[in-house]
Amino acid sequence: MSTFTIFLALIVIVAFLLVVVIMVQNPKGGGLSSSFGGSGQQVGGVKKTGDFLDKSTWTLATLLLVLILLSNVTIMDDAGYGESKVFDEASMPQNTTTPPAQMPGQSTESDSAQ
Fold first, then answer.
1. How far apart (Å, rounded) are the C-alpha atoms in residues 83 and 64?
2. Which residues, 6 or more positions from 67, have their beta carbon under 8 angstroms from its beta carbon?
3. CA angle 53-57-2, nearest 5°?
4. Helix, strand or coil for residue 47?
């Protein structure tokens, strides 16, 4: 298993967690924090859930960005120079048996033998 595959799996997990955290939030400020009573002071309960969700959103977004950048570095290391095999195959000549074109004014070997 290559390092790029590991980073790809981590990127998918972090992206899923980021979607879940964003979907839990309410754009009007209620969200999950309002379902726990909405007050900032609870005894034995969740305090400031909105702040936790906000911090976790920024943390997961930063982690996702870092993982994407690190995966880009590893894919370039795994592939050698970071070039695609498709471009390598497209740049290869299709027919190598064709003789080179003759420049005007040059004589061929059969002309010089006569």
1. 24
2. 7, 10, 11, 14
3. 135
4. coil
Per DSSP, which regions of 38-97 are E strands? Answer: none
* Distance between CA atoms of residues 53 and 46, nearest Å: 12
DSSP letter string, 12-40: HHHHHHHHHHHHHS-TTS-HHHHHTTS-S
**pLDDT at res. 114:** 57
Q: Where are the domains of the chain?
A: 3-39+46-80
Instruction: Note the pLDDT of residue 3.
Output: 86
Residues 6+ apart with CB under 8 A from 78: 2, 3, 4
The 10s digit of each residue's pLDDT in 23-66 is 988 766 555 555 555 555 444 445 577 788 889 999 999 999 99
Sign of CA pseudo-dihedral 87, 92, 94, 99: positive
